[in-house]
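Example 3.2
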Amino acid sequence: MPDNIFDQPTIPPGASGPSGSSGSRPPRPAPPSAAIDALFPQLDVLEVIGQGGMGVVYKARQTGLDRVVALKVLPPDAASDAGFAERFSREARAMASLQHPNIVVVHDSGQMGDVYYLIMEYIDGTNLRAIMDGERVPPAKALEIVSAVCDALQYAHEEGVVYRDIKPENILIDQRGRIKITDFGLAKLLEGNARTFTLTAPQQIMGTMHYMAPEQVEQPLTVDHRADIYALGVVIYELLTGELPIGRFPNPSERSTIDHRLDEIVLRALEKEPGRRYQHASDVRTDLDRLSNGATRGHAPAAAPPSPPAGFAAATAPQAPAVSAYPPRRPGDKSTGAGYLLWLLGLLGLCGMHRFYAGRWVTGIIWLLTGGCLFIGQLIDLFLLPGMIRISNLEAEILARQYAASAGVASQAG
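Structure, written as tokens:
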């Protein structure tokens, strides 16, 4: 057997499954099943079911447990990174710790020779991309899929795991209609290798890029869970319209016969600034549920999500409004430094006009008007304006008391 099983002869064309790639520059050929069988004697490798930038996926049977599993063999170039082994061990443990009905289970992981692998739950179905390519997903079904993805993301984020690569190819639907997200953590695991994106076809690179939040491109080291919410927004938009939200894109309701109230949900998830997006995947789910149940937003109390870990909460904790180091100026405050400065300018203008421009009557008149305007403006600011503000505040207070009184009467009558 060659030292590198990826140097084996190419698999027959068309052997890859729905997530396989096509085009003028196909991914690196997958090792044949016989080579994988030799590396994994505990498995009976059946066929290749997918291939892409994240590696090759085989359908296999665990002979000892008599169950069908998915074997993912990671790209061989990944191991060229000196720190990959440590990252793989850490991320594989994190992936295996995720136990959620909407997340594909990782049964085992390890290294065989120069091959890193994951043994995962096998999903007998297809991915969302294949479904979207075949037909337009009905809005009700689209919202059902998105709600399941929200649940999975909320759980993973609370466990401290950021996906970083949400897209239709990684959302699986089995024969019973169950929705599962696969490859949790692989994007972070492989991101340290600069050659990761060269392992896949150009159209796959662009497809992934369209789901990346702006901060993933501009500041990849500061990415947090809110990048997943942006990618989720892209998936929702594409599900509802059949298009990607590129450039100055229209509202979803302008491209599909859907409730226009969905626009606000989708556009908020697609905010360029992380702080303006939904801060939790559960918030997206809450708003979708309100819409599905026919309730208008704001009439139903939001369900409080489970308490997130400290690091997760710190990224999304509401920031207290900034407090100025200087107290605000109160109406009628005559000791304001800026006010005395303007008054002084007015007096200097009057005196200067008299002393320096004597005999120059045109210039003197101009300076007289300037100084006089400054002087009169300061008088208005110090004496007339505070009174007007006090009257305005008094009127506002009266209106507020009248409103409070009427509200109290109404509540008693109800």
